[in-house]
């Protein structure tokens, strides 16, 4: 009986050694899937980079009005260097409780649009419909701005420069219609192809229109001050100028 113990011990030791080798070999393949999963984690990150913002054309562009349960919402963007520098609502629900909701929500949505540089903005609490309409019109404005980008990056000067005439704006003393020349995304010239005339209107027009033309080039937008003594002409000028800018798409 005593002689048999060394044999059993040898058998057990051999079995233990073999088991250990098998375990070590089995651990190697198990580490490979982990490495594969780690490598597999890279594609989603690459996709998020590829999904970044597309270039948008410089200038001022107004999105389509979005109809909501409480009224229309329409957003205008100012883009410079391919980035949104200003967002504003040219239409928003008004009247009754809507006035309070709009005055609270719109400034927050404007700020959020500039920060996000996209239409991916959070809805303002208590202004669900206004927020949804804002985002819809904002996306429309961005789409228009993107559509204008290829024209601004054309090969030659002829492709980059364009002349656009806005819709005629009717005023109490006659129509006002503005034509602008845009080159490389900037207004280089503004002129009134129609303006009130006859009687005292001739003097008012000759005084106001040159000032408005100069102001349009300086402001690079329709946000120009009215000329003193020419309130109606100034209002019509701004309306037609904005129409021309919208047509130019920045």
TrEMBL record:
Alphabetical list of Pfam families matching this protein: FMN_bind
Positions with biased composition (Low complexity): 33-47
Boundaries of every FMN-binding domain copy: 69-145, 172-248
SMART domains documented for this protein: FMN_bind
Gene3D superfamilies listed in its UniProt record: 3.90.1010.20
PROSITE patterns xref list: TAT
Segments for region (Disordered): 33-62
Residue ranges crossing the lipid bilayer per the database entry: none
Protein name stated in the entry: FMN-binding protein
Provenance organism: Streptomyces tunisiensis
């Amino acid at each position: 009986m005593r002689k048999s113990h060394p044999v059993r011990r040898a058998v057990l030791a051999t079995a233990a050694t073999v088991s250990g080798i098998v375990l070590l070999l089995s651990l190697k393949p198990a580490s490979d899937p982990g490495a594969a999963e780690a490598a597999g984690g890279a594609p989603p990150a690459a996709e998020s980079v590829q999904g970044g913002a597309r270039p948008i054309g410089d200038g001022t562009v107004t999105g389509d009005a979005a109809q909501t349960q409480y009224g229309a919402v329409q957003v205008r963007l100012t883009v410079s260097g391919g980035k949104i520098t200003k967002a504003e609502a040219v239409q928003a629900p008004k009247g009754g409780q809507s006035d309070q909701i709009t005055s609270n929500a719109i400034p927050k949505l404007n700020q959020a649009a500039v920060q996000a540089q996209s239409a991916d903005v959070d809805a303002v609490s208590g202004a669900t419909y206004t927020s949804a309409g804002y985002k819809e019109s904002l996306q429309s404005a961005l789409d228009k701005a993107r559509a204008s980008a290829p024209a601004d990056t054309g090969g030659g000067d002829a492709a980059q420069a364009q002349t656009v005439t806005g819709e005629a704006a009717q005023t109490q003393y006659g129509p006002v219609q503005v034509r602008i020349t845009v080159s490389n995304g900037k207004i280089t010239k503004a002129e009134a192809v129609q303006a009130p005339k006859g009687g005292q209107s001739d003097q008012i027009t000759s005084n106001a229109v040159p000032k408005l033309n100069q102001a349009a080039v300086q402001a690079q937008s329709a946000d120009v001050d009215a000329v003193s003594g020419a309130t109606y002409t100034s209002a019509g000028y701004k309306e037609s100028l904005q129409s021309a800018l919208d047509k130019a798409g920045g």
